[in-house]
Write a structure and sequence with these properties.
By secondary structure, the chain is an alpha+beta fold. Helix content is 50%, strand content 14%. The protein contains 10 helices and 6 strands. It starts with a helix and ends with a helix.
Length: 244
Amino acid sequence: MKRIIFAVLTLLPSLVFANTGAVHLDKANYDLSDKASLQRGAATFMNYCFGCHSTQYQRYNRVAEDLGIPADLMADNLIVNGAKIGDLMENSVSEKDAAKWFGAPPPDLTLVARVRGADWIYTYLRSFYVDETRPFGVNNAVFPSVGMPHVLEPLQGTPRAEFATHTVDGVETQQVVSIKSDGNGEMDDEEYDQTVLDLVNFLVYSAEPVQQERERMGFWVLGFIVIFFIFTVLLKKEFWRDVH
């Protein structure tokens, strides 16, 4: 009985998370082997996100090396706060000022892809819509009452939502059924989706820079285990031959 209770308690956090994930998440088909995508994602992050969000567990020189960016180009184009190439990627906004402006300090994004998942980030960045009742004039279908402005609006254009009314237990609620840009952004829908995907790709890389190396090493480890298992079986048969 105690084991059953323990198992239920262990599953509660995942059950709660599942109940809050009512919004459909679009699939983020990122590719960590696509260096061009990662480079574009890094540029988008530094130009549109780094003003508020850091990736303070990364260093500029490691990112430049992994993404195939020459150090001089990294320093000239992607280091925007006077930091040195070997410094951690921390922005210049103090937590006190950020909390005053946004209500809470914007989170560090180094590990956001591991916490939220790539699909969540991809859908979230494509789910902003105009809401004049919010402090920054926008809301988000994935993260209602979001405290973040739509920083990619110049690229996407002004997104407006269409709602449908649903009645549950006699209570009417409105849910977002579609979001469409007004077409006045710098990109069309396909280009914007690709830009968001590039940004997601970079954040997935940031969360685990050694992921591809780990996966490659995993095949060698599994191969070693298989070969070791064969020799172990043969050795066992040799030891037990006289017994039988």
